Amino acid sequence: MAGAAETYVGRLLVAAPSLAGGDFRRSVVLVLDHDGGGALGVVVNRPLPVRVDAVLPPWQEHVTEPSRLFRGGPVGLDSALGLVVVPGDGPGPPGVRKIIGALGLVDLDAEPADVARGASGLRIFAGYAGWSPGQLEGEVAEGAWLVVDAEPGDAVSPRPQDLWADVLRRQPGRTSLLASFPADASLN
What HAMAP family does the database record attribute to this sequence (predicted)? Predict the structure, then answer.
C-alpha cells in the first residue's frame, strides 16, 4: 500500500512489454495522485484523431503540438482533464494547481490565455487511468509496470508516439534494452 513511505506522484508508469493487450499496451502513464485510496494518472502517449476544439474550443490555440485531444485512460471518457508544465518554483498562473515540480492541473473553466501565458506546455485529456487501493502496487509487483522518473517535457512531448521507447532508452542498465523490444514479438 502506498503511503508516506512511497508515492508514485509525478513519476511515469511505463507498460512492460508483457502488458501486450488492452488499453495500456506500450503506454506511458503520468501518475497525478497516489495514496492509500488508490492512484490516478493519464496516459501521455495516446493522441486521438480529434482536435481539442471539438470539445473545448477556447483551448485549441493553446495546446501543445500535436494539438489533439489525448486519451488519458479508460475511465471517465466523457470528462476532460488539463495538464500544464509551468517552469519555476512559483504557484503557477491563475487556474493552475501545481501537483509536483513544474506539473500542474488546469481548471478548464479558467481563462485559457491566462493559463497558457505562464506555461511551456499544455495538454487536454479525455478520461484517465485509475487504480483502487493496492491495485497499482500489485501490478507493479507483478512486473506489468516499470516505475521511472519523469522529465518535465514527457507530459507534453511533441512526439508522443515515440515516448514509450524514448523513456525506456534513457533508463540505466538493462532496462534501456526494452526500448528495442519488437511491437509484435511473434514476428521475431
Answer: UPF0301
CA–CA separation, 14 vs 6, rounded Å? 17
> If you count them, how many residues does the chain have?
188
pLDDT in tens, 11-64: 999 999 988 778 899 999 999 999 999 999 999 999 999 999 999 999 999 999
Task: Write out the three cell numbers for 105.
Answer: 492541473
Domains of the chain: 11-187 (3.40.1740.10)
H/E run at residue 127:
strand 121-131
pLDDT digits (tens, 9 = 90+) for 146-188: 999 999 889 999 999 999 999 999 999 888 788 877 665 555 5
Please answer whether residues 52 and 61 qualify as being in contact, where contact means their C-beta atoms are separated by less than 8 angstroms.
no
Output the furthest CA–CA distance in the chain (Å, rounded).
51
Q: What is the DSSP letter of 157?
A: -
CA–CA separation, 45 vs 63, rounded Å?
A: 15
